[in-house]
Amino acid sequence: NLLIEIEEKYGYITFSDAAAFMGLSEPYFSKFFRKISGMTFSQYLNTVRLEKAIEMLHHNEKQLSITEIAASCGFDTIRHFNRTFKDLTGMTPRQLPADYVLDIQPLRTIQDAFDPTLQASELL
Fold first, then answer.
1. Rounded CA gap, 13 and 31, in Å?
2. Residue 2: exposure state from Cβ atoms within 10 A (0-12, 13-18, ≥19)
3. pTM metric for this prediction
4. What is the pLDDT along the chain (124 residues), one digit of tens a residue?
């Protein structure tokens, strides 16, 4: 399943990797992903990465800096991490409450949709 693959390789998976995993051309994969999930691959990947970063911020036994957490979750720059963090949570990493949970429930509902061989799958 693609979403499991993304969950396991969130720190380094690329759009090309995901398209190849599905056995689809990149243009078709882009349309397929957006149609099924309602978001781009990049948006989905950033959400998964942010979920992992929030877990690390909550359980930071190694005393990692925010920059180290961002890098380990696959964000190229701290600026990109901070912008994505603020866009999805409405706050900065330093403002994050200890009990904050990112609402990614809509992402979980698309889990079974990522099989282009299913009869219910629609060709684009």
1. 18
2. buried
3. 0.81
4. 888 899 999 999 999 999 999 999 999 999 999 988 888 999 999 999 999 999 999 998 889 999 999 999 999 999 999 999 999 999 999 999 988 888 765 555 555 555 555 555 555 5
Cβ-based neighbours of 45, under 8 Å, separated by 6 or more: 6, 10, 13, 74
- Give me the amino acid identity at 20: A
3-state helix, strand and coil shares in percent for the chain, rounded to the nearest 5: 60, 0, 40
What is the distance of C-alpha 15 from the center of its chain?
11
Distance CA 107, CA 50 (A): 13
